[in-house]
Design brief:
Helix content is 37%, strand content 7%. By secondary structure, it is mainly alpha-helical. It has 3 domains: 189 residues, no CATH class; 66 residues, Dna Ligase, domain 1 (2-Layer Sandwich); 83 residues, no CATH class. The strands form 4 sheets. The chain has a two-stranded antiparallel ribbon. The protein has a two-stranded antiparallel ribbon with strand order 3-4. The N terminus is likely disordered.
């Protein structure tokens, strides 16, 4: 996607440095992204190069960021008790034994449950009987299959699944392909279905990462003949908030951001409601390990979804998404506008043409060139990879990024404005 940076280089009319062209004050490298107070909504990107999603991203469980673990602890001061001794006193021995016992108890209390949850994730946050779709890759190992089923909350305990495979002598009979299954299924029923083979039939609905509700409606119309107007009339958060609590407070009563991207098979004649519930159910399954009521790095889950949608549209390179997230966090912290072109495209109603100077004057809360902070709502449906990046950003001091001159979809990141200008000039030269 053409970026505003290219226009800026071509026309040499203005630079991108934040509010009023002022560069941010110097910041220490490696700033952590965890604060007690929520950050105002709205972030802009300085060096944007938005690209359409082309490949599916394998979902993985999302857990809250733990940016403060194992780092930043003060080094203990030297104590007289550290000096050489002839031998430990009885009191010291007793204290040491008590400390060891306490440590072991702590491990049993906290570590063991955590490991158990990792091995056998709980399905308590996902109601049983919800339809989800999974793909078993060609040549997938038993562990990969168990992981896919567990992540989708189809099974609640991989050990029970392995036992079912052994009981039914099915290890060599499991077939790859697309399946419609249900959360909380009996493992033996799951194994029987995998032996029988894929049960996805009929027309497939493909929802790519980064699509808007409007674009999703167009795909639904093409697949099932449900008109765009009918789908959009049904796609209101107020119609589903009673069953999907994470929609509480959705901006403008919109489902933007929550119609999970995936390939679906919904029979021959689904209704608009059937389609929407299938996509929302998939969102629940993919993000089941995320506590919607929690805050992450000072942001609510709703704000995290806004950030994830921006990340999704900014890079198709999965490894770069935590870096893009760090730029957004750093710009929010520095009170700089985000300057993300994808938000401008959303504000103007879409289109494939590059962002123009007139676009930057659009009067919209999604105009993150004129408004500081995050967008008021998501701008697309992000993948689980982008959601995870928003929750777990890279620890950097980057404030800028621009498309790489390698023209391979990657970006160059920098914390210095002058370096950003050099990177932008390099990209402009390679693109001309």
């Amino acid at each position: 996607m053409d970026t505003i940076e290219r226009n800026l280089v071509a026309n040499d009319r203005r630079d991108i440095r934040g509010a009023n062209g002022a560069q941010p004050s110097s910041r220490p490298a490696g700033k952590r992204f965890k604060s007690g107070a929520p950050v105002a909504s709205g972030v802009q990107r300085s060096a944007s190069s938005s690209q359409a999603r082309r490949s599916a991203v394998r979902p993985q469980p999302v857990r809250p960021a733990r940016h403060d673990s194992g780092r930043g602890a003060a080094r203990p001061s030297r104590s007289p008790y550290n000096s050489p001794r002839r031998g430990p006193s009885p009191l010291i021995v007793v204290i040491a034994i008590v400390a060891v016992v306490a440590a072991v108890a702590g491990v049993l209390l906290f570590v063991v449950p955590a490991v158990s949850n990792f091995i056998s994730p709980s399905t308590s946050s996902v109601p049983a009987g919800q339809e989800v779709q999974v793909t078993i890759p060609e040549g997938a190992s038993g562990d990969v299959i168990a992981s896919r089923l567990s992540e989708a909350h189809i099974i609640d305990d991989p050990k029970r699944y392995y036992a079912a495979v052994e009981k039914l002598d099915a290890a060599m009979s499991l077939k790859p392909g697309d399946y419609v299954l249900y959360t909380g299924m009996d493992p033996e029923d799951v194994v029987r279905q995998l032996v029988e083979g894929p049960n996805v039939e009929g027309v497939k609905l493909v929802i790519q990462e980064g699509l808007t509700v409007q674009q999703t409606a167009a795909n639904v119309e093409a697949a099932y003949g449900i008109s765009v107007d009918e789908f959009l009339a049904q796609a209101k958060a107020s119609n589903y908030v009673a069953d999907y609590s994470f929609l509480e407070g959705a901006y403008d009563d919109s489902l933007e951001g929550y119609l999970y991207p995936k390939t679906y098979s919904l029979g021959d004649d689904p209704t608009a409601d059937d389609v929407i519930r299938a996509l929302l159910n998939q969102f629940v399954a993919e993000t089941a390990d995320t506590d919607y009521s929690a805050t992450y790095n000072g942001l609510t889950f709703q704000q995290i979804m806004c950030m994830a949608s921006l990340i999704e549209r900014e890079t198709a390179v999965e490894d770069e998404r935590p870096l893009v997230a760090s730029v957004i966090y750093n710009r929010l912290d520095a009170d700089m506008p985000l300057q993300i072109d994808a938000a401008i495209v959303y504000a103007r109603g879409g289109g494939s043409q590059g962002v123009t100077y007139s676009d930057l004057e659009i009067d919209s809360p999604y105009n993150v060139y004129k408004n500081k902070g995050l967008t008021p709502g998501p701008i697309c449906s992000p993948s689980i990879s982008s959601i995870k990046a928003a929750i777990e950003p890279a620890d950097t001091d980057y404030l800028y990024y621009v498309a790489s001159s390698a023209m391979d979809g990657t970006h160059k990141f920098s914390s210095d404005y002058d370096q950003f200008l050099k990177d932008r000039e390099e990209y402009s030269g390679s693109a001309s």
